[in-house]
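Subject: for your reference before the review

Hello V.,

The reviewers asked for a structural picture of the protein, and I figured it would be easier to keep everything in one thread rather than splitting it across files. Below is the amino acid sequence we used in the manuscript, unchanged from the supplementary table.
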Amino acid sequence: MLYEPRSVDAVLVYDDTLIRGGEPWAHIGLQAIHEKLKDGGAIVVNSKRDPEYLLNFIPPTNKKYTLAVIDAEGMDKIFILPLIGAMLKVAPGIVSYRAVIAAVKERYKAEGIKKAEVVREAYNKVRFIEVPPATGPIQLKRRSRKFEEFPKWYEMPEGIVVFAPPVDTPNPHYKTDTFRTFRPVTDPEKCNKDGLCWLYCPDSARSPDPEKLFEVNLEYCKGCGICAEVCPTKAIKMVNELEFKEARLW
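And here is what came back from the structure prediction:
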């Protein structure tokens, strides 16, 4: 059974690119990271960046919340422990500090003291800012998926038929841009226009035009990095999405 709460006290984010929002399931559209966060709740992000910078990628909301950042990856291979330690600092009403430390020691047995120290360190090192509610009514520019109405069972032809878009044309009903955490960037000085990036792209996200350096349609690019891997001149570099402030999805 899937548990879908109506509201939450805190959101723990393992990858900072996810603060732009995410697809809950079935490509039904982008959901803001704070959509189910209670007023006065906390968002705790695993990131090396400052909370002020990350705020550029979070859509506005009429709720106030705390935005906290901890470099969980640099502290322990089990990311959840530093995230919990940071959460204890910025959202102390969820669970007590002493209860968490006791639970960690019991859970990790021989490594219990070491893991508890990770929680304590995160508690002391977390960086955070208080984000006030935006003024006035907020209208999020959400991306929603539009699907053609499926045929009734008695209208379906015999056999299995997959209706595909024309060759070299991406499927307008299956945009994968909200999955992307890294974006391909082409260096025009290194590109030899051999077309391997276009040929190997699994989502037909690239233009077949070499004069445009096989330009990427970012609505369909999911950042898989195949184009960068097959490029013989290493003209394509995968760059973290949070390096592009214009990449906000709202």
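For the response letter, the relevant points are probably these. Residues 136-140 have pLDDT under 50 and may be disordered. The helical segments are 51-54, 80-90, 97-108, 112-125, 196-200, 226-230.

Happy to draft the paragraph if you're swamped.

O.
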